[in-house]
Amino acid sequence: MSANGGAVTQSVLQRELKDKNVLVTGGAGFIGSHLVDELMPDEVTVTVLDNLSSGSASNIENWLKNPSLVFAHQDLLNLDNVVKVARGCETVFHLAANPEVRIGTTSPKVHYEQNILATFNLLEAIRKVGNVKMLLFTSSSTVYGEPTRVPTPEDCSPLKPISIYGSSKLSCEALITGYAYTYGFKAIIYRLANIVGPRSKHGVAYDFVQKLRNNPNELEVLGDGTQTKSYLFIDDCIAAMLMGLEKAESQVDTFNVGSEDQIDVKTIADIVTEEMGLKNVRLRFTGGVNGGRGWIGDVKNMLLETSKLKSKGWKPKHNSEQSVRLTVRGILPKRR
Predict the structure, then answer these.
(1) Model pTM?
(2) Beta strands across the sheet bearing 69-72
């Protein structure tokens, strides 16, 4: 994290979480492990709950022997175990979810179980233990579907997600809101753009690197290449989440989290080939579905309005292109 952003984050941690017990669901995953990296040095006792279906214990291996971290290899689908883990925790970061948007077209039950049912069980655990004061949830820009306003503000309505993944995230938002008002805890909902960076094992940049490793002469691009979206580097995402923790004012508050610009898929393909030092790579566009989308449910144009969170003092340090380049460089072997 940058020096300035790091200083802001550390001050937030000292004020809001020092000497507290914090639960991070999905804490061994991509975003979760980076959050744990920020929490651990600051006199915070962290419990990570993760079933390791998409995360990895290696992501938090630096902390596994630290007495301030408890690793619970558990599944949110087991309510009794979630209750045991949540007992004593005052703040909960709920990041556990199935991150693959495309799987919803073939296995919608995965999103129901890993997103909706898992969130319901967590909320039931919070209700039963009675000690949680704050729940922070990572939702998604996909809850907006294809909005009529771009950039899209938090109060854009109606919300019409076009994927099962987006629908599941919106369902989680509704459950969290109802439980927060009914049982008296606060909640913050973060609607995330495409978050990228080290440890991510899915997404367009990661997929392109893997494809080019297999065939450095040709790159398959899902869709027509004009899909245009916002990409935010992981450090900026973590700083946004912690800033929201301090600045949220309502019983339930919602913040968009994303970069201030967007880039298209073809540009990402060019960035990846350039960073890999490849020449004359042929781009093979699949043409996609429903007007050039990469898959059914793919939102073709996404840019979030982030002025609400920026008014609280947060500002991303990287634009979309910089975020993608840093991500690719993190995947590739270090250059000598």
Answers:
(1) 0.94
(2) 69-72, 45-49, 21-25, 91-94, 134-140, 186-192, 252-257
